[in-house]
């Protein structure tokens, strides 16, 4: 009997390893990984632009990850443990500052988590919880994932990433009252960056709205119309192409702008590898929400 059991184990064990699923999703893009296909290309591009500006201006790495369910992966534990494992497995944030931020949205499980790097103290957990409860979950509950993600990203930049960066640069909170110039300079930095982030998120919408005030190259009248959609064609990677058409309300003028690759149901073109992250770690700080 024992010989039969030994033979069974020899046959079984070589197959056990390869059949195991990945513990965590592959976070291949530095800023946005919509693995659950929850948002449109406009929302993703705007969010990526805001997070790219955050990285270039402050060095803070923040990424958004959406998945369908944690059951698709083998990682054990609750949502907080899963998010921390994903954060550390990907190495989000600078390895010396540990100031990375992860926004995780799990659509089928109806849960979300903001995971903070180990540099953020517990005060930021309270702020993150307010952002989850006020700016994200109400929109996720209505199925508007794009709006919830956009609002969450803006609030995280303004209330978590920038204040922590400023505290790190100045060596923490000042002992006494700062001078007028220092306070004014800090406000200017915050306002300037908020403008960059908002333009990244909503710049295309604003640009499309301003199109109506441009003059038509053909008839000279104001009132151009901007329309975006998907053209039934594909680029060299086999991805659908976005169509941006400018037309005149008063004449037959029409102009099709250069198309861009759109995402597919199974994913989209990624520009970076996991190695681009800085190797940061999280010790468990953050906040969760359900709907």
UniProtKB/TrEMBL annotation:
Residues covered by the TPM domain: 33-158
InterPro entries the UniProt entry points to: TPM_dom
Position of the signal peptide: 1-21
Highest rank taxon of the organism: Bacteria
Segments of this protein annotated with the region Disordered: 257-291
Transmembrane feature ranges: 184-202
Name used for this protein in its record: TPM domain-containing protein
Organism: Albidovulum litorale
